[in-house]
Structure prediction request, 323 residues.
Amino acid sequence: MNVHAAALAKAPRFDGRTSAFASDVIDGLAQRPKRLSPKYFYDAAGSELFEQITLLPEYYPTRTEVGILRDRGAEIAKLVPQGAALVEFGAGATTKVRLLLDSCKFGAYVPVDISGDFLHAQAHALAADFPELDIYPVTADFTAPFALPAAVKAMPKVGFFPGSTLGNFEPHEASNFLRSAREILGEGAQMIIGVDLEKDERVLHDAYNDAAGVTARFNLNVLVRINAELGGNFDLSAFAHRAIYNRERHRIEMHLISRKAQTVRILGRSFAFRAGESIHTESSYKYSLERFTALAQGSGWTPIASWTDVDGMFSVHALVAEP
Ligand code: AVJ
Prediction:
C-alpha cells in the first residue's frame, strides 16, 4: 500500500451506509427525548459483545429458545411441508437454524441479511455441514420488501424469525413486518417465530443489567461507533448504561444517561446534554401469548402452534398465511 492509500484507509469512509448512519444519528440526537436505533449496535465489536451477552447467566432468552427449538424439533418437523424453502429474516449466528435443519427436511435455505460479508461467511460454514442443502443468501434489509431467489419460487415457504428480534419493533412496526413477511413468502406459507415473554420484573431487569457489565459495554458501543465512524467526541466515561422495565408499555428500555452537563460534537454539529439526560437506545418488547397471538392474527397470520419452556420464559410460534 502506498502512503496515499494508507492515509485514505484511516480516514472515516463516507459511503452510502455511513451517510445513512450519519443522518440517523444527527436526526436522533436532535429529537426530544434523544434516541438512536438499536440496529447500530451491531458492528463487528457489537456483534461480538452480543454473542457474549447470549452466554451470560442472567440473559435467559437465547439458551431458552435454543432449548425449545431442540426439544420441539420433531413437532415442528410434523408441521413443516417437506422440501420447503426456509427463509431466515436477519441471519446472525447459525446455531438456531442448524437445529431446524437437523430436525426438518428443507429443500433450500435462504438467509436474508443486510450484512453481505457476514452472510456469505455463514452460508459457506453451513454448506460444509449440510452438503445436500441448496443455500441462496440474499443481501437485503428484511424490514422492506425483497425478491426471493427464482430457484425457490415454486417451493413451499417457511419463514424463520428467531431471537425475539420482533421485540425491537414498536407494535405497529411489528405488525407491518409480519404483513410484509406474508407478502414476501406468499399465501400458504408458514412462519416460525421466537418471542420473548412478559415475566417477573426482577428477571427482566437482571437480563439487561448483568453483573459483569457486558450489556453496558454493548450499549456504549454505539457511542464508540459514532466516535470512530463519524468523528464524534463522546467521552464514554461521561455516560452510564441504564435498562429499566416499562410495565405499561411491556418493554425493556435501554438508555445512555449523561453523567453531567456536556456538549458533544459530531460531524461539525454540537449536541448539548443536561446532567441526567437520556439517549434512548433500544426498546425490547415482551409479549404475553395472548397479545402475540392477537398481533399475528391482526397481521394476516393464523397461529397453529406455540411452545414455551417449562418456566414460561420464552415462546416459539408456528403461524400460517391462510389464503
Ligand atoms: C437481539 C433484540 C433480542 O432485546 O434482548 C440484548 C438485544 N439488548 N441485551 C434483546 C439485547 C440488550 C436483544 N435482541
User: Anything to note?
Assistant: Residues 53, 61, 163-165, 167-168, 208, 215, 282, 284 surround N,N,N-trimethyl-histidine (CB under 6 Å). Confidence is low (pLDDT under 50) at residues 1-12. The longest strand covers residues 106-113. The chain has eleven helices and 14 strands.
